[in-house]
Amino acid sequence: MVRIRSTIELLAAVLLLLTLPYEAQAQDRWRFDFENGAAISGYNDVRIPGDTGTAFSFTDDLTSDTAYFWRVRGDLRMARNHVLSALIAPLRVDAAGAFDHPVSFAGTTFAPGVPVKGLYVFNSYRLTYRWEPVQNEQWRFGVGLTAKIRDAVTRLEALAVGSRIYGVPVNL
Length: 172
Known about the structure:
The protein is mainly β. The protein has helices at residues 2-18, 26-29, and strands spanning 30-39, 45-46, 56-57, 63-64, 67-79, 82-89, 92-98, 103-105, 108-110, 115-135, 140-158, 160-161, 164-165.
């Protein structure tokens, strides 16, 4: 109940800030950035649980696909010194292969030589409020708060060999 109330209070505060009068050119009020490219998994070592699982690499023990990534950020200048910003940055890396030794991962042991699929997800979402008390031709200085949500998953799944399946999907 407290979480719902806090969320409602935050939304009410944002809506209140959006209603503040601000006379700016349209190009000054909104700003959007878009990035994209290739994400190559160069160092992605995993051990779950961290004290008893078997360490393995998404790049050395399995073959990781080059992943396409994108991120978008939007800024809304609500008043001369007040900016609300949101960022969405999803990332997904798929891997496949077979281990040459037994791998214990999240309570499941994957046998050597059995084909496995791996999944690494690290999605990031941020909402930022920034107050910019100093703005001139040379400087812009601001302070603010950011709320960040991470959606992270590391999963291994053994593929069927004959009529037997080794390992099970694991979401963390």
